[in-house]
Design brief:
By secondary structure, the chain is α/β, with parallel strands linked by helices. Helix content is 49%, strand content 18%. It contains 27 helices and 21 strands. α15 packs antiparallel against α16, α15 crosses α19 and α16 packs antiparallel against α17.
């Protein structure tokens, strides 16, 4: 215990020492000369296609019927489609397992000296291939499967997906992992940390290089993965591997090591981790790595839409960020077209300028200065945000309020959120929950005043209907308050007579809850208090008779306001991919006799079609998704739709979330540096004509079409 406390003190001292260095670090200029997004975190790493389902069904039937001819047919199908659909996915692993099904002894002869491959084969083939069949059922939904509950299903599915991808014995075919290992400087007796070790694919390779007197620390935040590595190491007597459960903000290594390695993880660290977690994470690496030691980062390159697992990050973003944390960029090796390896040394760097894309000899118009170790784009969890211990306490208090309807409970819970909001949830749902506390604590006159705005009344009616059934269900599920209730309280019911598979029903449930969270955030009656919506409205040039496309309208927060600005002669097109939001707008418009709003559902590829051209396309808190989540095709369809939609002198107005200094609370979810949007759109046929910083966390950029 004393040793652990001493380590915490040392880590705190290091944090205090290095933090000023970051604040004083000279900015690194990134010259942006590419229309590509500099980072993408796709929604799903393993996308399920129709052809993939056919293969999965063939493999499943082969196992169930002990039919080796079907396994051969599955291999032939996999060979046909894997290069165009599944680079770095599960197809090569499935093919290898089919080969083991056809002739297990032959495969065992080939892998006799590869203990990790032997364990992989045993794991997926034991008990008549029980785990492989489970993976096919869960991932590909090839038949109805009785999941015990959704939470466990997702955890189990993630475990199986990661196992089949990461420990794939043929991983070298698509990743060239042998070349990655050749470029890592390790000697007998060295110590290395494998961060995000998963199931130990690289840890096992490192253990053979460093020998019995070295040490591999296999670090992962998932306790089940750590357990697997420790059991594997014990089973095969690999005493130089020690698996450790880490945290998002601390790798939990108290030893001094020669090297640190992470593979296909830094794009998550850069674009998904919260700022404070990333800071703590990088400080803990610096604390463990010897001065002059090496940090190796393998990650995904942009590859014209064929990126590994639908994710990538331009290396220059990593180089610029890590320099501010005291890591000097030393070498870049392009391992494959889809994957690179970066080598850093634990010492002060001196890079002042980096080119993203093809740099010309002239001064580039588009650039961004990266400083203080900050990320220039953050995707986060998109539809949600981090759930904290204090947030869970607030959720329990809120449930007590809406169950008991007691004034004092409501006032005390509102006061609790008063103290919580400034610390951790700018722009989130806490102000919406406060609004309900205020309503419950109010008298009848005050309640009538709170519902004076028709959109606020519709908000209340929707969430408070049937004794707050939807709001209760949302809070219980969001904050995991030990509820066992089913989805029956969702407004958007699933037809009991429908023929959807179990997985499709689960997906419908997840989509509905995401739509409810969007609704709570978007139409929040207290949105003005943090966003300063009124300032946005004052800056908009909309007038009577204008035609506006509200792109990513959600449940109509802005569409309703625009409808009043353009009058009866104008038109507002509410465009969204989620049908639930559009249904709400239609019902609201009908009830309030609003005739100048028309809903349009965008396509799965993010394009849309309008019956006429419009004066303005308006987009709020959407472009970070267009930039950092959409595929190239989706983004092109999206932007081409805007070009076709706008009149000759029309304007495209983008509202999005801004990075902020460390002394300010950031927007609760995603953000994107304005320079990235401007650089991309100006290379895609738009020209920026105006900019306004609405609040530190939100800005507005106006574009016109280039002539």
């Amino acid at each position: 215990m004393k040793h652990y406390c001493k380590s915490l003190i040392v880590l705190f001292v290091l944090y205090s020492f290095f933090s000023p260095l970051i604040l004083q670090a000279q900015a690194t200029r990134l010259n942006l000369n590419t229309e590509n997004s500099v980072m993408r975190i796709g929604i799903t790493a393993l996308q399920v296609t129709d052809e993939g389902k056919k293969v999965a069904r063939l493999i499943y039937d082969a196992i169930e019927n002990n039919d080796k001819k079907k396994a051969v047919a599955a291999i032939q199908m996999l060979d046909t489609i894997k290069s165009k659909q599944n680079i770095g996915g599960d197809f090569t692993g499935l093919k290898w397992l089919c080969e083991g099904f056809i002739d297990r002894n032959k495969l065992l002869e080939k892998i006799s000296d590869n203990m990790l491959a032997i364990d992989y084969l045993n794991y997926f083939s034991k008990d008549n291939h029980k785990n492989l069949k489970e993976y096919l059922l869960r991932h590909y939904s090839i038949s109805d499967y009785d999941y015990e509950n959704e939470s466990n299903h997702l955890d189990r599915l993630t475990y199986l997906e990661d196992m089949i991808m990461f420990n794939n014995p043929t991983r070298n075919e698509w990743e060239n992992s042998d070349e990655i290992i050749r470029n890592i400087k390790l000697s007998k007796g060295d110590k290395i940390v494998d961060i995000g070790a998963g199931f130990g694919f690289y840890s096992y390779q490192f253990s053979k290089i460093i020998g019995p007197h070295g040490k591999v620390y296999s670090v992962d935040t998932n306790e089940d993965y750590v357990k697997y590595i420790n059991e594997f190491s014990k089973k095969f007597k690999l005493n130089n591997i020690n698996a450790i459960t880490s945290k998002e903000n601390n790798i939990n290594i108290r030893d001094s090591v020669d090297a640190v390695f992470m593979c296909s993880l830094y794009h998550i660290v850069y674009g998904w981790s919260q700022e404070n977690n990333r800071k703590g994470f990088l400080y803990s690496i610096k604390s463990a790595l010897k001065k002059g030691g090496h940090l190796y980062i393998a990650d995904n390159s942009y590859s014209n839409g064929n990126e590994l697992n639908n994710c990538y990050i331009y290396k220059e973003l990593i180089i610029a960020q890590l320099q501010d944390y005291g890591f000097k960029f030393n070498k870049h090796v392009q391992i494959t077209p889809e994957r690179y390896l970066l080598e850093f040394i634990h010492e002060k760097g001196n890079v002042s300028k980096l080119a993203v894309g093809k740099e010309s000899n002239s001064n580039l118009k588009y650039h961004i200065d990266v400083e203080k170790g900050k990320s220039i784009i953050h995707i986060g969890s998109l539809d949600s945000y981090d759930i904290t211990d204090r947030g869970i306490i607030g959720a329990k208090l809120m449930m007590n309020v809406i169950n008991g309807k007691k004034r004092n409970d409501a006032l005390n819970t509102k006061k609790y959120y008063d103290g919580l909001i400034p610390d951790e949830n700018f722009g989130g749902e806490y102000t919406a929950l406060q609004w309900f506390c205020e309503y419950i604590a109010s008298n009848e006159t005050e309640k009538s005043e709170m519902l004076k705005n028709p959109l606020d009344k519709a908000y209340y009616d929707y969430l408070a209907n049937d004794d707050y059934a939807i709001l209760k269900d949302y809070i219980e599920r969001k904050y995991k308050l030990n509820t066992t209730k089913n989805d029956s309280r969702n407004q958007f019911q699933v037809n009991s007579e429908s023929k959807e598979t179990e997985e499709e029903l689960k997906e419908i449930g997840r989509t509905q809850r995401a739509a409810i969270e969007d609704f709570i955030l978007f139409n929040n009656p207290r949105r003005e208090t943090w966003e300063r919506t009124s300032k946005i409205m004052q800056l908009l040039p909309f007038k009577d008779g204008d035609k506006i496309a509200d792109l990513g309208s959600g449940p109509g927060y802005f569409s309703y306001r625009f409808s009043k600005m353009v009058g009866e002669k104008g038109k507002v097109y509410s465009i969204d991919v989620k049908e639930d939001h559009l249904d709400f707008i239609n019902e609201f418009s009908k009830k309030n006799k609003i005739k100048n709003i028309k809903t349009i559902q965008s396509s799965e590829t993010q394009g849309y079609t309008l019956p006429e051209k419009v004066d303005y396309v308006y987009s709020c808190s959407l472009y970070h998704i267009v930039y950092g989540v959409f595929s190239d095709k989706e983004r092109n369809d999206f932007l081409n739709s805007i070009k076709k939609t706008l009149k000759k002198n029309g304007l495209f107005i983008v509202i999005d979330n801004s990075p902020v200094d460390y002394n300010k609370l950031p927007y609760h979810g995603p953000y994107i540096s304005k320079e990235l949007i401007v650089a991309q759109l100006e290379k895609m046929g738009f020209e920026s004509v105006d900019f306004h910083q609405i609040i530190p966390q939100r800005y507005m950029i106006t574009f016109k079409l280039k002539s």
